[in-house]
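Suppose a colleague, Dr. K., hands you the sequence of a protein chain of 250 amino acids and asks what its three-dimensional shape might be. Before reaching for any lab equipment, you can write down a predicted structure in C-alpha cell form. Begin with the sequence itself:
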Amino acid sequence: MVPQLEGRVAIVTGAAQGIGRALALGLGREGAAVVLADVDGDGARRVQDELAEVSGRGLAVPTDVADEDAVQAMVQRCLDAFGRVDVLVNDAGIFPTSPVETMAEEEWDRVVGVNLVGTFLCSRAVVPTLIAQHSGRIISLTSGRGLEGAENGAHYAATKAGIIGFTKSLALELAPYGITVNALCAGITDTAQPRGHLTEEELYTRAATIPLGRIGQPEDLVGPTVYLASDAARFVTGQTVIVNGGAIRW
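The predicted structure, expressed as C-alpha cells, is then:
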C-alpha cells in the first residue's frame, strides 16, 4: 500500500513528547519528511532518532514558537533541508493552572504567547510557501476546554477557543489557493500535561464520564491528522474535528 504522504514535508511543533511526538511519527510512517520543532531541543532530537527508524527523514529544530525570529528560522531550515513544506501541525502548547483571581499577568501572557500567538506565527510563516505551491495543509490542535471552559485554566481555554476562530478565518483566506486549514479538537489525553495536575484517581473518574470508556491516547489523534493532511481531505476546510471518545458531541 502506497503511503498517503509520500514525498510530502511536514512541520510538527511541540514534537518532543506527547501528542506532538505521536503525530510526527505517524506522519513519518505515511512517508512524510518531518521537521520536529520544539523548545526542548534534546527531546526533539530523541524523536528524530525514533523517526529515523520509521522513515529516515526527520530534522529536529529547537524552536520557541512564541518567538517570531525563531519561527522564521525554523521554517527556513525546513525549506533549506527539504525544498518545500506541505503540512503544518500546530501542536505546541502549555497548560499551567491558576484561578483568575490570583493569575499573574506573566502567566497569562506566556500561555497566550505559546498556544495562540505561536499558532499564528507558525501559520503565517508557512503561508507564502503554501500560496506559491498552490497547495498545503494547516492543522492546529485545540481542546474541548476551548468549547466548555477550564476551571483554573481560563488562559488555556481562551487560547484554545481562539485557535478555532483563527482556523475558520484562515481557512477562508487560503481557500482560493487550494490550501486547507482545520482544527483537531482533542479530549483529555494521556500525556504528561494532564498527569501534571490530575491524580490517577481523577483520571479514572474522568474516564468514567467518557462514552467510549477511557481517556484518549496520543495515537488516537494520528489517524485524523493523517487524514486531514492527505488528499482524501482536499474538500475539508474550516472545520473543527473533535476526537474525544464522545465526551463532547458537537
